[in-house]
Amino acid sequence: MTLILTLGNTSGVYQSSDYQLTDGETGAPVSDRVGSKQLQASFRGFDLQLAFTGIAEVGPTSARQRTVDWLSEELRALSHDSQLQDICDALARRCVAMAKPLGSRYILELILTVAAVGEPFRVAVISNVDWRKRPPTAKPEFTIRVHTITKPYHLISGYRESVPAHQRHRLRALARDVGRAPEHILNVLARVNAIAAKHSRGCVSEDCWVTSKIADGRVRRSASLNVGQHKGGVPLISEGLDLHEWIKRNFRAAPGEEITIVQSAGAIFGPGDGIPLSPPAGEHRRFTLSGSTVAGSCSSLAGSQPASIKISQLNCVLEMRCNEEATVPFATVVLSAVAPIGSAFPKPLYPWPQLAPSLMIDGAEVPRGWEYSVGYWIENETHHLIIPQSCRSIRGLAFLGPEDELIIVAPSTTMEFAWSGSEQAPSTTAYARVSWRSRLDGTRG
Fold first, then answer.
1. In contact, 35 and 235? CB cutoff 8 Å
2. CA of 385: how far to CAs of 103, 247, 352, 416, in Å?
3. Burial class (CB in 10 A: 0-12, 13-18, 19+), 184
4. Which strands, in side-by-side order, build the sheet including 427-438?
5. Which of 70, 113, 209, 291 is the most core-located residue (most Cβ within 10 A)?
6. Where are the domains of the chain?
7. Environment class of residue 7 by beta-carbon count within 10 Å: exposed (0-12), middle (13-18) or buried (19+)?
8. How far is it between the farthest Cα atoms of the chain?
9. Using CA atoms, how far apart are residues 76 and 35, in angstroms rounded to an integer?
10. pLDDT, mean of each 10-residue run, the chain (445 residues)
């Protein structure tokens, strides 16, 4: 059965969803992982958070399919230009197709919280559940209801009886409190979920996934938190790609651990909604960037060292005003390789090894220097090496005042190298974009 709590008003829309689901054969609670019943997706001009209550899996024992997986599959198949009604229609059709084999046992309710640039928040409910029955039963069809949030709104989905009456009153009052901070609302939702868990006979988990979508003028800001830091991750769908799956494929977890989402944040903007840069101001300032030379070996999975790299920071003299940007030569990159070329091995997972030469501004040393990530592999008898673009804000050093920061992007674009065993290893100059500006966040020190 599980539990989803949804609140909304003109300032934002908020949701908590616990980590329990129901086994379609036995009716027993299953799963205690984040992402077992939650998804996020972004489309052109809006994004949504989806949580569901109901059956965890469908299909015969030999070919069970998790509900969260086929919902994710449906969202990935949709066009990035899809509108909310298109999405709801597609999800409802898929729900009908998946529900048929189980008949009245298959109850499922999807709750979507939706934020669009410059528009009121919306909550969409796609459901076949008849909540008037005890226990709830499945209706023949799935209905779609879309609520535009122009007044206080609250919804309890799933094991409603587990939420005591005084906590229901608390949720209604919280929905009316338009000026309440999002952090407070998320904390209250998490506490109400924990209280409900104690009255649920094991059907609701004590911890939960909480999300907020709030208005900042036309901009819509979102945040999510894994209360209890449970294992797992929430699918994040954008233009047919699941970013959480991409992270799992490309990043290494620590030994004995798994990659787990703890919290997330984001924002969606429309044309002209960003923070404009201030115009150049003040006198020209002349300063120098300099640093050291570092070298390292590029290792294969077998431990051999088919190539090496040397990065030397250059002396860069800049003259600019506050809120100006310049592109300058930043470092030389020299590659070398042994012959014959070694055996092939795949592109490594992140995080990649780093080289960190010192970096100085007018002779004052920048903490940690500059950190270059280096990815190296051999494929089709060809060396491949990538140095990704990196960005950093430097504050409180050299000539920088309490309201200043120096932004360095280096290399200015990702550098990719490929050369065969019979070719000379390449050498080049890495460029950096440097901007001296007043802090956009208004902080000091």
1. yes
2. 55, 20, 11, 6
3. exposed
4. 293-298, 307-313, 324-337, 427-438, 404-409, 391-394
5. 209
6. 3-268, 281-438
7. buried
8. 77
9. 16
10. 92 94 61 79 95 81 82 95 96 90 80 96 95 85 96 95 96 95 96 95 91 93 92 90 89 86 88 76 94 95 92 96 94 91 91 95 95 96 96 92 92 96 94 88 50
And the tokens for 3? 């539990």
Cα angle vertex 222, ends 149, 270, to 5°? Answer: 80
**Separation CA 370–CA 300 (nearest Å):** 25
Q: pTM to 2 decimals?
A: 0.78
**What token pair was written down for 229?**
């830091």
Cα separations (Å) of 213 from 250, 262, 268, 308?
29, 17, 10, 48
Task: List the structure tokens of 350.
Answer: 């992140």
Selection from 20, 390, 350 nearest residue 206 by Cα: 20
Side chain identity at residue 274, one-letter code: G
Q: What residues have CB less than 8 Å from 147, skipping those under 6 apart?
A: 8, 122, 123, 124, 125, 153
> Which run of H or E residues covers position 51?
strand 46-54
CB within 8 Å of 257: residues ≥ 6 apart: none
In 3D space, the residue among 252, 247, 209, 230 whose CA is nearest the CA of residue 111 turns out to be 209
